[in-house]
Write a structure and sequence with these properties.
365 residues, mainly beta, ten-stranded mixed beta sheet, 4 helices, 21 strands, 14% helix
Length: 365
């Protein structure tokens, strides 16, 4: 007997600062039903890293909620969904001072016609160093809904590399919510690759709370067919001398629709903080819809912020140049797409995951 669905619907990926509503960029809208949890396949855990399934009320995040880019209300709705469906939270703890060169890989195999969700909490102890790779896969024609939330807590001087790779089929609705809380001198290196999904709502909300906390985000995406991709990146910089950097490289083609929001928010007290955000978009069809909005909010005087973006397409001159060298238009476009994704994927410290990305591109382009 099929379990009753718990529906989630509402505004997600909301701008911290509302702009003109006519642009329809202030938020996205997610709607989907969930029936069950999904457990990842987990690689061997190095000594000093533990994983335990817990009720939401027993996790580290329960008393210290880290907001994701999906928004406070949607995070609360996810909490309610976890409780109603009795979905356990995967809590990963990294022991203080522990340093591992081997990544922990969590692979999600999403089955056809399933409506599943997962929730993960990572607690990195003081002075630790660790890497986590989340990859999401399904068959190319799989339908359904899949959502994953990841909340990360870095103690003083902790360093975490976090990678998420979306290799889902083109008929799945998907959210990938990430929130981090970084204490003094903590660092997060985040890499996100978005290739699959019919509708995808992704991004991160990074709280740089401690003195000299830092965050680097590298994002790559391909949005083709009739896909909808909605990205929201926020760097909330409250600590002094904090630093954030983000770069997103993407490609749009066919009838795809993409919205990208990037916000650097310098809070009062963030003296000598620095922030930099960039998005570079390549348009390979006249029928795509691209919306990009980089924003800097500032409530502190002595800070340094930079943002920008570039939107371009293959010119007739470039195509002619390539054709004279035996490269037709389709091959040229595939080359450009792979180049954009490879420029971000090179930050992923795992050859097997890189191979999966390359295979996915070969099969879907």
């Amino acid at each position: 007997m099929m379990a009753a669905k718990t529906n989630l619907s509402g505004n997600v990926n909301q701008f911290p600062s509302i702009t003109w509503h006519h642009l329809h960029i202030n938020h996205g809208y997610f709607e989907g039903g969930f029936e069950c949890g999904i457990q990842p396949e987990v690689s061997a855990l190095p000594n000093g890293i533990t994983l335990e399934s817990k009720n939401l009320s027993e996790t580290y995040s329960f008393d210290n909620p880290a907001q994701t880019q999906l928004g406070k209300q949607f995070d609360s709705d996810i909490d309610g969904m976890l409780k109603s469906l009795d979905i356990k939270v995967q809590e990963i703890k990294v022991a203080p001072g522990m340093a591992s060169s081997e990544p922990v890989k969590l692979s999600y195999k999403v089955k056809d016609n399933t409506f599943s969700a997962s929730d993960t909490v990572i607690v990195a102890g003081e002075g630790s160093s660790s890497t986590f790779i989340f990859d999401y896969e399904s068959t190319s024609d799989a339908k359904g809904v899949f959502g994953n939330r990841i909340r990360l807590y870095c103690a003083e001087n902790a360093s975490v590399t976090l990678v998420t790779v979306n290799l889902l089929g083109t008929n799945l609705v998907h959210f990938n919510g990430i929130g981090s809380s970084l204490k003094e001198s903590a660092r997060l290196d985040l890499v996100q690759i978005e290739l699959g999904g019919k509708e995808t709502y992704s991004g991160s909300y990074n709280n740089l709370l401690g003195y000299k906390a830092s965050c680097s985000v590298q994002g790559g995406y391909v949005c083709d067919g009739d896909k909808v991709l909605d990205i929201n990146y926020v760097s909330n910089q409250a600590g002094s001398q904090t630093e954030s950097f983000s770069k997103f490289n993407g490609v749009l083609l066919d009838n795809a629709k993409k919205t990208w929001r990037g916000t650097i928010d310098f809070k009062r007290g963030a003296k000598e903080a620095k922030g930099d955000e960039q998005e570079n978009v390549l348009l390979l069809s006249p029928d795509v819809v691209n919306k990009s909005m980089p924003v800097i909010l500032c409530d502190e005087e002595n800070v340094e912020g930079r943002h920008g973006g570039s939107i371009g397409k293959l010119s007739e001159e470039e195509l002619l140049y390539l054709e004279t060298r035996g490269i037709d238009e389709r091959t040229a476009k595939i080359m450009m797409i792979k180049s954009r994704i490879n420029s971000i994927a090179r930050f992923i410290p795992d050859a097997d995951v890189l191979d999966k990305i390359h295979v996915y591109l070969e099969e879907h382009l």
